[in-house]
Amino acid sequence: MALLPFKKLTLIAHAADEEKILTLLSRTGSAEIIRTSEVEGFRKGDASLKEDAIASEMAELSFCFDFWRSEKNKLDKVIKKQHDEKVKLTEYKPKKDSLLAKIRAGKQDVAFDEFDRVGSDHQEIHAVEKRLREISAEETELKGELQRNASLIEQLTAYEKCDIPFHEIGSTAFCECALGLAPSDLLAAADLSDLPALSVTELDCRQRVSTLFVVYPKAQREACLEKLSSSSFSKCTFDFNVTASEKITSLRARKEEIYHREIALAEEAVAFEEAIRPHMEVLFDYYRVENEKAQATDQSFRTATSFVLSAWVPAHMQEGTEKALQEAKVAYCSIYEDPLPDEVYPTLAKNNPVVTPYESITNMYSAPSPREIDPNPFVAFFYFVLFGLMVSDAAYGLILALGGFGLYAIKRPKKGEGQLLLIIGMGGISTLIWGIMFGGYFGESLLPPVMFNPMKQPLYMLILSVGFGIFQILFGMGISFVQKCKNKKPLSALFGEGSWYLLFVGLGFFVMSGMVKGCASLKVPALVLLALGGVGILVGGAMGKKGVKGKIIGAFGNVYGVTGFMSDILSYCRLFGLGLATGVVGMVVNLIAGILRDLIPVAGYVLYVVILVVGHVFNIAINTLGAYVHNSRLQYVEFFSRFYTGGGHIFKPMGSNLKYIHLSNKGGNDL
Fold first, then answer.
1. Is the dihedral of CA 55, 58, 60, 65 positive or negative?
2. 384 pLDDT exceeds 70?
């Protein structure tokens, strides 16, 4: 149970074998490519053209995935409309997976030979991509037509009451006719008496805009147009061979045609998905691996005939990597070196199956630095213990354990997945144990507690919570002490964590001397330990500071750190609050259900069952979430602040950055 050591691989090989070697390294899952140190006479690798081509191919595949999602959303709306309006609009029926299938949904397993086949032969995929692009383009065109038609309908509504086709409104031998619009207020204020030959008929008025049909003699054309212009008359420019009402009807019919065409296009697009999407997902991840290989080329240095590549390889995988290179029958030279003191290499933790799920808790905060003590076993222990203390109901714990482990068994996740289910399952075991200790079963004391009942003796619960807090904080300081000694800083450990230990032990003895009968003799040793601890803290704060002023500030600043200890210890009171909250809410749910059962004949028993089920499910859910969040916070803030450095990066070997698939060899073994 530790953070694994790494070797730095420097690989020199013939340029003709580069593709073969990069493919092999991506399959072994043992090498994280890093930037190669500059080599005299070598030029830096450049695969930018290949990366651009890959990015273009991946963009096409991403378009297909996004397009399918939008088309299915569109068809879902059509189905809803079909159901609400009782009309037949589509034959599309969304695929409905069983609950078991949904639980087991995950990355598909793909063998290397299938991976390579899809990567080299994807003409069918390109054909589908092309057709989906055509469908998308047609839909865009139809949407544009809909917008234009909607705008045209809005303009034509002003002329709906004109029963003359637009193209027939024009000139005769002696007169001119026009259809147009003018503001109603300007029209009312206009004086047309000086032009008696000008005929103005108001056909409609909407939103203070009048629709006018005007007739005037050709001989007085200029004067009439000038008079109309003074009223802001705007002549209609439509020349359709139908009336406005007929044109609006045809546009609305066209809208329905477009709607049905869009449905047909969406159905056609979605019909491709079931058969071709799995292959597209394989191809997408194939391009991701190819992109990693191109980036590896960017990190290398080369000549016309050779290249140099550097990578981090876990020490325990060195032999397997070397064996794979030898079996590839390529000309190469490999050098494995230990990291230099100032080199930062990846973090790879190796823990037992109990501790491994809790690595995700640590990594959410920050991956461990590769040169520090692995915090995961300690996080696993404290997280396990505190989770149960926060929920503290035996029945709830049994449900969580069965639920977490049961779902994990049903889901059968791939390696490295499903960690949260295991954390919940183990948290359920811890909750079951603490529930038995406290005698809590669905918010009731159905059996006598092994330790005490927190509802009746809350002070004991508070003392237990604070006691765990003190223990975890001191444990974290102990890890820091060991880490400093390991890094050859014994004085820093002695005058740092060592002094605080003396101070706390002295404080404990001093309290015992005054409160425990027969322990009065501990007072003098307690004062001595307090004095030694205090002096040590002052010295530790002054160490490494420059000048007298800096040493004084550092010394007393270190003493001020006692307030931080008190604050951190008080944070553990949340264990007390959450532990009581679970029992209180459960008890209230039982009380309300019991009252309704007794008040309402027959139906009261139905309500009793419903309230119990809903109430306790809610209580389990909300307290499990609270335990997960607050437990993580205690690890990150109170525990990690005592020793944890973090800042590392998780080992990511070339070929592991897969989004949709789980790649395995022909025998089915994980990489």
1. negative
2. yes
Q: Angle, nearest 10°, between helix axes 394-411 and 603-633?
A: 80
pLDDT the model gives residue 1: 61
Convert 476-498 to b/e letters by CB count within 10 Å (16 or more is b): bbebbbebbeeeeeeebbbbbbb
Please check whether residue 85 lies inside any domain of the structure: no
Which among 235, 265, 281 is the end of a domain? Answer: 235
Q: What is the pLDDT of residues 326-361, one digit of tens each?
A: 998 898 999 999 999 889 999 999 999 999 999 999
| Domain hosting residue 411, numbered range | 349-642
Burial of 356 (0-12, 13-18, 19+ CB in 10 A): middle
Using the predicted structure, report yes or no on whether residue 102 has a pLDDT greater than 80. no
Assigned domain for 655 exists? no
Q: Which of 235, 266, 285 is the last residue of a domain?
A: 235
Tokens of 400: 């969580």
Element (H, E) at 219: none
Q: Is residue 605 part of a domain?
A: yes
* Nearest CA among 652, 643, 649 for reference residue 366: 649
Contact between 173 and 167 under an 8 Å Cβ cutoff? The reply is: no
Q: Is residue 545 pLDDT above 80, yes or no?
A: no
Q: pLDDT band for position 560 (50/70/90)?
A: low
Q: What are 157's two structure tokens?
A: 């509504």
Q: CB-hemisphere CA count at 13 Å for 50?
A: 16
Mean pLDDT across the chain, nearest whole number?
90
Statement: residue 551 has pLDDT above 80: no
Q: Report the number of distinct structural domains present in the chain.
A: 2
377 and 521 together in one domain:
yes
Same-domain pairing of 509 and 637: yes
* H helix or E strand, kind and range, residue 208: none
Q: What percent of the chain has pLDDT over 90?
A: 65
Quote the CA–CA distance of 353 and 362 in Å, as a whole number: 16
User: Given pLDDT bands bounded at 50, 70 and 90, which one contains residue 270?
Assistant: very high
The strand order across the sheet containing 209-217 reads 199-206, 209-217, 175-183, 234-235
Closest among 104, 52, 107 to 657, alpha carbons compared: 107
pTM: 0.85
Residue 336 is assigned to a structural domain of this protein: no
